[in-house]
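Sharing in case it's useful to others searching the archive later.

Someone asked me privately for the predicted structure of Chemotaxis protein CheA, so I'm posting the question and my answer publicly. Question first, with the sequence:
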Amino acid sequence: MKSREQEYREIFMAEALEYYDAMSRHISELERNPTDEAALNELFRLMHNLKSNSRAMGYTQIGEAAHHMETIFGLIRSKEMTFTGLVVPVLFRGVDTIGEMIRAVGEGAELPDISQLITNLDRLVQGEEPILEDDSDEDDEDANRKLELSDLVYIQIKKLDHLLNLVGELIIDRDRVLTLSREIGNPALATAAAHFSRIADELQYSVMDARLVNVGSLLNKFPRVVRDVATAEKKDVELTIVGEDIQIDRNILQIITDALLHLVRNAVGHGLETPADRLAAGKSAQGHLTLSAQTQRDEVLLQVVDDGRGINVGNVRRKAIERGLVSQEVAANLDDDAVRAFLFEPGFSMAKEVTEISGRGVGLDVVKLAIDSLGGQLRVDSVLGEGTTFTLVLPTSIAVKGALLFELDARSYAIPLMHTDSVVSLQPTDFHVVGGLLMSRVQDENVPVVPLRNLLHNGDGPLPPAVKGELTGRQDIIIVNYSNRKLGLIVDRFLRQQDIVIKPMSKPLDTIDLFGGVTLLGSGQVCLVLDVPALTRLFLAKRP
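And my answer, the predicted structure tokens:
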């Protein structure tokens, strides 16, 4: 398995070789037409990019040569120097030297001495004549010049999207072939099916791996964002970025860009106090903001952490009651996590109310919807006066997802593992009724529980008040977790866990919010995939 350093070096080499080829082409164009501004601008840009990339990778000699060459092309571009006379051979030699250094990095060889090149470039800047050596050996070195192609290719993301969709179809067929081979019981077919399964798995992971990008490609854009917001708000903010090399599907990163931008702006603008307020609260004048990424099982966790004023849970609870989002009786029994989940409701998006709950909430419903679209989760944790943490729980891929299969009324359903907290089997004595809701103590938490069929088949009316005596025998329950809220769904029986490919529902079923799509099981049976966010919202709307 390649190390991160090796991957970065290969990416650098691919880009650097492209830069070198483009430099060689453009400097030849410039020699034919010294007033070719397009070629000159490209040479300046290429030198600038190579300088930055080389320094970032620690290849200081390449960066130094590119920096001096960039200076010369800048002078030519500003008409302070002309691409004539001895300037021409010096710059051609500079491009060749850069090519030699790039190849040396790729081969792990010692880089050539560039002291004479740097001296000549400096002399050109100072208006002095460069010192040119006998170039007869250089001419011999030039029919033996090697032409090299990069080992890496760049692929449009839409081509990878199409390839991943085809892999998804292959995964469905793989499951059907495996099911058929078990039913038929032919040893030769079973062997072929097992080989097909291994190849499909390898292809799936290879395609998914090709779509991965470093989270740092997004996180490293935030220092400027934080600086601009902090300046506008007259705040002193230190930004720390952790986990830039964590990898995630490029499309997922694209979708959460605006959401992450909003959370960061909110943290600086509303979460962190002014220097004066921080000093009055016994804190340092400088606020601290951390953007971090880490992997957890098959998920990527992105966190926005500030050490600001935190969230006043009491105010959130009061506002939720005032807006009719929850009854006073139910609100009194909600823990802090469940109360903070109200921050993601559209009713909390008004500026006046947001001010009263410590500046949190503006647009958080929109942020949550973006995360929901990926099958992810958005969580918030806070300590009043100490700070707030927003956690984005994201899948590494959006095409193939882990799911729990279960049965209800003789039909198979799937529920994404992303929203599955745990599965438990409870006896009627494990339940109690509070405010018309069925509750149970699961992992030291009071969790509301509802028969899933009541949510799916109860129409538009409210859920009937829970009656404990109606429960008989063992109850199989899936505990789902969405937006800091846990909900137990009573099903008929658990089936198994497996990877599924979720397909959009066809009309008119696509208007039913409770289902996020369909998948095809190995038996050929169509299986509905539950949408946990929609189920949770429905439960909150229909509860007694």
